[in-house]
Amino acid sequence: MSGSLGLLGLDQAELDSCVACGLCLPHCPTYRVTGADTHSPRGRIALMQVVDEGIAPLSDEIVEAFDSCIQCRACETACPGDVPFGHLLEVAKGVVEKTRGKAPWWLKLGLRALPRPRLLRAGSSCLAVAQRLRLVPSQRLGLPQRLPVRRRALRATGDDVWLFTGCVMDAWQRDIHVATQQVIEATGTTVRPSGDAAPCCGALHTHAGLGDDARRLAARAMSALEGDNAILVNSAGCGAALKDYGRLLDSDEARAFSARVFDVHEWLVDHMDEIDANPPAPAIAGRVAIQDPCHLRHVQGSHMAVRRVLEPFVSEIVELDDEGMCCGAGGAYSLVHRQLALDVRDRKTGAISRSRADVVVSANPGCSMHLVAAGLTVRHPMELVAEALRAR
After folding, report:
1. Which of 82, 104, 128, 149 is deepest in the core (most CB within 10 A)?
2. Mean per-residue pLDDT over the chain, rounded
3. What CATH number belongs to 12-100?
4. Closest by alpha carbon to 292, among 387, 238, 364?
5. Contact 231/202 with Cβ under 8 angstroms?
6. CA distance 351 to 344
7. What DSSP designation does 360 have?
């Protein structure tokens, strides 16, 4: 870090890199919905500045401005000055959490369960039973249409690459991991699922301002995923978090670890020649719309790889006309800020409707569940590729 640190512990040089030009405004989902400058990146940075310098107290209104950010980081893609908005907000939210305890108690309780895979699976199985008995409003809560009571086993076939399986996705959407492993192995590559050894990447903890918890989970993941082989990730949010361990932990070991992490589509682009990409029929005969998860498009910059991997296996790919606008999921954001998340989602579902797509694909579990709750049919890209390969 460079520059003096103020009350929020922010780097002054990073704060000063924002010149309030406003080029980020059209790309900010909360600003698009509310029109309030305090709900924009430049407005939030201005508030960070006055609090950091002691000009204004950390009031409820300022805390709300920070907390209402979805952390999509589309502003970073649009910014000509490379302002590290995501990092600034993470630091600010960390201070807010330590001094104000802003995160809801039920969110903290849920986050404590994520690194406990047996507890998470048991709770998820109970939720699945309740879902079948129609005791939980699945669509309103954004749950998958049919949570698994039992899960298909994931077995290692070798040590060529790791497949990071994570927490909620492994408990609720393990079939996507099964499909992903099948696609990777179609390249002749053996796979070792990370499983319970690395049960959570810490992304949701970071977003909630629980930085110490995130660092503990990062250290645990690094210890479990040893070696120098590639770590492949099929969740955009998890991949972004794992790639950020070098900054989160600020160590050479963490930076070396992050260099091994690849979004699975990013990795597959370099291995497509090893797959028979000519199945007798595409997995989807209609129009497939791609919803770019923000942490794949704006953080990892790997969203074009999804198109290149899907192209041989679907009839037609259609692009949405909203320039990658956030869907409003934001991990737990849609639960904490429900109305804002729904207002943002309405813009995304409008773009999907205009595309006249038959199915939507999304490479992030939070995005897919948020869109399923709107009544859309959403699949993971790896599911479509695996189905096409099985049809050979």
Report:
1. 128
2. 94
3. 1.10.1060.10
4. 364
5. no
6. 11
7. E
Domain boundaries, the chain: 12-100, 113-269, 278-390
Cα separations (Å) of 89 from 10, 48, 86, 95, 105? 9, 9, 5, 10, 21
Q: What pLDDT shows up at residue 5?
A: 64
Tell me which residue has tokens 């955009």. Answer: 236
Which long-range contacts does 30-36 make (Cβ < 8 Å, 24+ apart)? 30/68, 30/69, 30/70, 30/340, 30/344, 32/325, 32/344, 32/347, 33/340, 33/343, 33/344, 33/347, 34/340
CATH hierarchy code of domain 278-390: 3.40.50
Q: CA 204, CA 333: separation in Å to the nearest integer?
A: 10
Cβ partners under 8 Å of residue 381, min gap 6? 265, 290, 306, 309, 310, 361, 363
Least Cα distance to 204 among 195, 192, 193, 213 occurs for 213
With beta carbons less than 8 A apart as the criterion, state whether 283 and 313 touch. Answer: yes
Which pLDDT tens digits describe the chain residue by residue (392 residues)?
455 567 899 999 999 999 999 999 999 999 999 999 999 999 999 999 999 999 999 999 999 999 999 999 999 999 999 999 999 999 999 999 999 887 899 999 999 999 999 999 999 999 999 999 989 887 777 677 789 999 999 999 999 999 999 999 999 999 999 999 999 999 999 999 999 999 999 999 999 999 999 999 999 999 999 999 999 999 999 999 999 999 999 999 999 999 999 999 999 999 999 887 565 566 666 899 999 999 999 999 999 999 999 999 999 999 999 999 999 999 999 999 999 999 999 999 999 999 999 999 999 999 999 999 999 999 999 999 999 998 87
pLDDT of residue 19: 96
For the chain, give the longest Cα–Cα distance: 67
Q: How far is CA 133 from CA 126, 138, 163, in A?
A: 11, 11, 34
pTM over 0.90: yes
Give me the residues paired with residue 256 across strands: none
DSSP state string for 190-239:
-EEE-GGGS----HHHHHTT-HHHHHHHHHHHHHHS-SSSEEEES-HHHH
CB atoms within 10 A of CB 178: 17
Contacts for 127 with CB less than 8 Å, ≥ 6 apart: 136, 143, 147
